[in-house]
Specification:
Layout (H helix, E strand, L loop, with lengths): L1 E9 L9 H16 L3 E3 L5 E12 L2 E9 L3 H18 L7 E7 L3 H10 L10 H9 L13 H15 L32 H32 L26 H20 L8 H20 L5 H14 L20 H6 L21 H4 L8
Helix pairs in contact: 5-6, 6-7, 6-8, 6-9, 7-8
Length: 380
């Protein structure tokens, strides 16, 4: 079975962040290491084939994705961890880097298939969340049964999101509806509700958290469509996000489109976290933000953190970042073609046909060159 293993590696604490030249060198070293490996040995000498890899380096470390063919999820994770550990140890420059995460994020249907492949007395728990927890924690002391503490997990996630909030550098608290410039809690509005700075920070951190999840899962969607050489409308297996795009164009969502859309998501969220964001550039970015907001809501709800205050902060963020909500019409077949008729002209609706999704709204906006290089064969 094919798995996509995501590995987060960080610089040691106290180490200065890498400059662009150092990041380029790190990419080269890691890619060379991956290129030298075709297969690795997992637990119990089980061979695992390395099919593909992706390396993304940022100032504080790197995110690596390895596509492997393995008999079970645990085998894939353990084998990739061994490869990364050896790769880092072999390099004098990377030797001190630390692995923070090495795991497979599975769609529920695929998680069950992986579970079915790992039987016997030592098979992991049937619940995917419990299974993930078991492999991310140290084994309990012999004779002591570990208990799941939902409140503790929620508080840990909350603190992590609050810590991530500062990475969303392009958006001050006012973009999330906080009216007090000093960071104090705003006075109640006429309806008796206000958005606090903490609500804004939690919403911002959830967006950063969701960015990692969205990119990770879109990478898997790309792999699925490319491997099977099909479009979303023809895919019988589970997809994470691409099937949530407007259904009227589902036959157009093939492997090439998926790669272009993934690059668009990465380019957009890089501007979010890098502090350079000004406006959404194209229809594809509007749809990408819709998916990101959905993932942020799901993440918060998963940990029981989606209360009215955080919901309001995310809603305010969406209202401030979107210039209009015309893209919502793509989900309504009754509005198909409105951008090409007199109504669209009167309302100044930007072109929304499929062939225009990666076209900048105006000359002052830019789309990543890979995404903007639209094939002539694409149809509206």
């Amino acid at each position: 079975m094919t798995y996509v293993v995501t590995v987060d590696v960080h610089l040691p604490k106290g180490t200065p962040e890498m400059d662009p030249l150092q990041r380029a060198g790190a990419v080269a070293l890691i890619k060379d290491g991956f290129d030298s490996v075709e297969a690795v040995e997992g637990p119990d000498c089980v061979e695992v084939d390395l099919l593909d890899s992706l390396v993304a380096v940022y100032p504080g470390g790197a995110i690596l994705k390895a596509v492997v063919d393995a008999s079970a999820l645990e085998v894939a994770e353990d084998a990739v961890r061994c490869v990364i550990e050896e790769l880092l140890e072999r390099s004098e420059v990377l030797a001190d880097w630390q692995i923070e995460r090495c795991e497979v994020a599975l769609h529920p249907k695929l998680a069950q298939e992986s579970l079915d492949a790992a039987d016997g007395p030592d098979a992991p728990p049937a619940d995917p969340a419990a299974r993930k927890t078991r492999h991310s924690e140290h084994p309990p002391t012999e004779g002591v049964e570990a208990e799941y503490d939902a409140e503790a997990e929620a508080e840990e996630a909350r603190q992590q999101m609050l810590g991530l909030a500062g990475e969303l550098r392009s958006f001050p608290p006012v973009m999330f509806g906080v009216l007090d410039e000093d960071g104090e809690e705003a006075d109640e509005s006429e309806d008796g509700f206000s958005i606090s700075l903490e609500n804004a920070r939690l919403a911002a951190g959830a967006l950063v958290w969701a960015t990692d999840v969205l990119v990770d899962q879109l990478f898997e969607d790309v792999h699925t469509l490319t491997e099977e050489d099909i479009a979303v409308a023809e895919c019988e297996g589970p997809l994470w996000h691409l099937e949530d795009l407007p259904a009227r164009y589902a036959l157009q969502y093939d492997g090439l489109f998926a790669r272009r859309f993934l690059v668009t998501v990465v380019a957009m969220t890089t501007r979010f976290t890098g502090g350079s964001f000004q406006r959404l550039s194209c229809v594809a970015e509007e749809l990408a933000l819709r998916l990101l907001l959905n993932e942020a809501h799901v993440t918060l709800e998963t940990f029981g953190l989606l209360d009215d205050g955080v919901s309001a902060a995310l809603e305010a963020f969406a209202e401030n970042v979107y210039e209009d909500m015309d893209h919502v019409w793509l989900y309504d077949d009754a509005m198909d073609g409105i951008d090409e008729g007199p109504v669209g002209e009167t309302l100044r609706v930007a072109p929304m046909g499929f062939k225009a999704w990666f076209t900048p709204f105006d000359r002052g906006r830019h789309v990543h060159p890979y995404a903007a290089d639209e094939p002539e064969a694409a149809a509206a």
